[in-house]
């Protein structure tokens, strides 16, 4: 219809007003161009009868507006009067069309009602809503955002996010980043007087792809802790954990940071507690990266020796063979060309009454093994070029990922030294044999690196499932390094399965990765799948409740059932 076309026309007049002059027989003598709007025809109107176009009009009411209908049935308002031109009397008619104004008023009223309803709907949401125009001017915030941020509408509406950012009202504006990147953005915001929130912003574009609005959804992080796997723990707890992870063997008690749910590992650390109080040599066996260094540090810090001497760590495979003797036992002045004046203490001497950790003991040169054996047997050693015995008072803890028995058979390792070191043997199982430790370790490493690098990442459920499927040939060291890398390179707060797979596929010796990730837990027997699912449900409920009775009520089981399931699945 013509009215619809006119309403959508950007050049449309909101109100038409026109005049027509006729003689006494209503023949048209003059009119303006806007009169075509009322007759709805594009023809020459001179000398045409006005009654042709308004057949039902009554031309007898003067000086007041009356309703008249056109040939097409449209209603307008008409006012009739008399004028005199050159001593001749004429009729003058004024026509007006207020229908467009009425329609516009109706549309405005409708939009106002819609806006009110949308505002009421947004205000019912628990998530905060923040909207801007394409230039960053704040045009809407809902009540939830005001509650989360501690701000008021007067502080926000009409102001740009750049003003608010410069004034530290919104120091980390997500909408500003959306405008700058023209893409979706997620940030963690600490509002000045409010909460710590996860903010997800998105651009809203017109049909031509031009940015017209931005919208941000704000969620209280504390509401999402279960979903995001402890995404934003209290800063003081994260910093405390960071300090303990950075400085093993300092004032923090190592017992506090042992992370394991594996029964073999728990038994191993119980044995380590007992060994910490004696002076016997210990041989730690295990693959590369399983935590031999960490276990040694734990034993030293639990022992009385931590206050009597240092923990000296020596990688026997990393020191050049021609230097290792001088590094271990030291040398006297003039012992060889280039020896420093006054000589130099060796690492054995620096240890005092502490602990010496000989890592990769299987790589120690055969000729040096004799001198090490003598030091252990005689409780003394000599510097190179020296003739004064130095008392050997430190404890020896050795570690290797090699098979020392095979090296003994091959004459690459002395049998007498092997038996001297192998008083007590501790074996650390590889990470793939204690998969229940993978996620707790990963979560703690994630907390540490989030704090260290000022990130707030969390693992997607698919990513955590991939952690459990992966073989971890580099054990805990590989897990720790990969999680730090994921935190650093992740462009989003969510660390996805795809990003993890990209990183492990770049590692050497990963030829089986494609086949490995194609496997699914659906390949497991039904009983194991059900147990995995049951364990996850119980762990989630226990995290959400404060007592076993409350957890039992939630699951509609007896408290004894919860206790039994906790023991079965080794849930703390």
Give a verbal description of the structure.
With 572 residues, this protein is of the alpha/beta class. Helix content is 41%, strand content 19%. The protein has 25 helices and 21 strands. Strands 2-1-5-4-3 form a 5-stranded antiparallel beta sheet. The protein has a 5-stranded antiparallel beta sheet with strand order 7-6-10-9-8. The longest helix has 26 residues, at 99-124. It is elongated and about 145 Å long. 25% of the residues are buried.
Main attributes of the structure:
elongated, five-stranded antiparallel beta sheet, 25 helices, 5 domains, single chain, Beta-Lactamase, Rossmann fold, 572 residues, alpha/beta
Could you outline the blueprint of secondary structure elements for this entry?
Elements: H1 2-8, E1 16-22, E2 28-31, H2 36-39, H3 50-53, E3 65-69, E4 75-85, E5 88-97, H4 99-124, E6 128-133, E7 138-141, H5 143-149, H6 153-156, H7 161-166, H8 174-181, E8 185-190, E9 196-205, E10 211-220, H9 225-228, H10 235-246, H11 263-275, E11 282-285, H12 292-302, E12 311-315, H13 321-329, E13 330-331, E14 344-345, H14 347-351, E15 355-359, H15 366-378, E16 380-381, E17 390-391, E18 395-400, H16 404-409, H17 415-421, E19 424-427, H18 438-452, E20 458-459, H19 461-469, H20 475-489, E21 494-495, H21 497-504, H22 513-518, H23 526-544, H24 548-555, H25 559-569
Parallel strand pairs: 11-18, 11-19, 12-15, 15-18, 20-21
Antiparallel strand pairs: 1-2, 1-5, 3-4, 4-5, 6-7, 6-10, 8-9, 9-10, 13-14, 16-17
Helix pairs in contact: 10-18, 11-12, 18-20, 19-21, 23-24, 24-25
């Amino acid at each position: 219809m013509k009215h619809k076309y006119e309403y959508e026309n950007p050049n449309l007049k909101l109100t038409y007003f026109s005049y027509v002059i006729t003689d006494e027989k209503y023949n048209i003598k003059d009119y303006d161009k806007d009169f075509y709007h009322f007759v709805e025809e594009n023809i020459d109107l001179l000398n045409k009868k006005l009654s042709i176009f308004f057949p039902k009009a009554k031309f007898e009411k003067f000086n007041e507006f009356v309703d008249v209908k056109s040939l097409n049935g449209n209603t307008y308002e008409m006012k009739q009067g008399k004028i005199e031109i050159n001593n001749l009397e004429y009729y003058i008619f004024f026509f007006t069309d207020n229908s467009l104004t009425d329609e516009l008023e109706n549309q405005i009223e409708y939009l106002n009602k819609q806006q009110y309803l949308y505002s009421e709907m947004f205000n019912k949401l628990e998530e905060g809503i923040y909207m801007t125009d394409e230039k960053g001017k704040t045009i809407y915030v809902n009540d939830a955002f005001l509650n989360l941020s501690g701000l008021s509408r007067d502080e926000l509406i009409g102001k740009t996010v750049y003003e608010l950012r410069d004034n530290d009202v919104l120091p980390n504006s997500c909408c500003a980043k959306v405008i700058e990147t023209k893409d979706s953005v997620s940030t963690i915001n600490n509002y000045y007087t409010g909460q710590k929130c996860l903010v997800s912003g998105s651009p809203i574009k017109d049909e031509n792809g031009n940015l017209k609005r931005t919208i941000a959804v704000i969620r209280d992080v504390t509401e999402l802790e279960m979903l995001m796997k402890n995404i934003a723990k209290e800063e003081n707890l994260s910093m405390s954990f960071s300090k303990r992870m950075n400085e093993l063997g300092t004032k923090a008690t190592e017992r506090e940071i042992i992370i394991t749910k594996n029964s073999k590992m728990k038994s191993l650390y119980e044995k380590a507690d007992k060994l910490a109080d004696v002076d016997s040599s210990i041989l730690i066996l295990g693959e590369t990266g399983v935590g031999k260094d960490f276990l040694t540090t734990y034993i030293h810090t639990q022992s009385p020796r931590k206050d009597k001497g240092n923990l000296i760590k020596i990688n026997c495979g990393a020191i050049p063979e021609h230097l290792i003797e001088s590094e271990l036992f030291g040398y006297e002045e003039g012992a060889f060309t280039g020896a420093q004046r006054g000589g130099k203490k060796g690492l054995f001497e620096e240890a005092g009454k502490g602990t010496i950790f000989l890592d990769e003991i299987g790589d120690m040169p055969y000729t040096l093994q004799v001198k090490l054996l003598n030091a252990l047997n005689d409780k003394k050693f000599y510097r190179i070029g020296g003739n004064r015995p130095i008392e050997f008072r430190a404890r020896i803890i050795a570690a290797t990922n090699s098979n020392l028995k095979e090296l003994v058979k091959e004459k690459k390792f002395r049998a007498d030294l092997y038996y001297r070191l192998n008083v007590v043997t501790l074996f650390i199982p590889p990470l793939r044999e204690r998969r229940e430790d993978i996620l707790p370790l990963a979560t703690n490493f994630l907390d540490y690196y989030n704090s260290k690098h000022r990130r707030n990442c969390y693992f997607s459920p698919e990513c955590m499932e991939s952690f459990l499927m992966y073989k971890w040939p580099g054990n805990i060291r590989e897990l720790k390094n990969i999680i730090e890398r994921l935190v650093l390179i992740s462009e989003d707060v969510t660390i996805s399965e795809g990003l993890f797979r990209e990183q492990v596929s770049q590692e050497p010796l990963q030829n089986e990765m494609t086949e490995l990730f194609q496997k699914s837990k659906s390949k497991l027997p039904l009983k194991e799948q059900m147990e995995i699912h049951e364990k996850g449900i119980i762990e989630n409920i226990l995290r959400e409740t404060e007592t076993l009775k409350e957890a039992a009520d939630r699951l509609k089981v007896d408290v004894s059932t919860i206790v039994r399931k906790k023991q079965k699945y080794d849930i703390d």
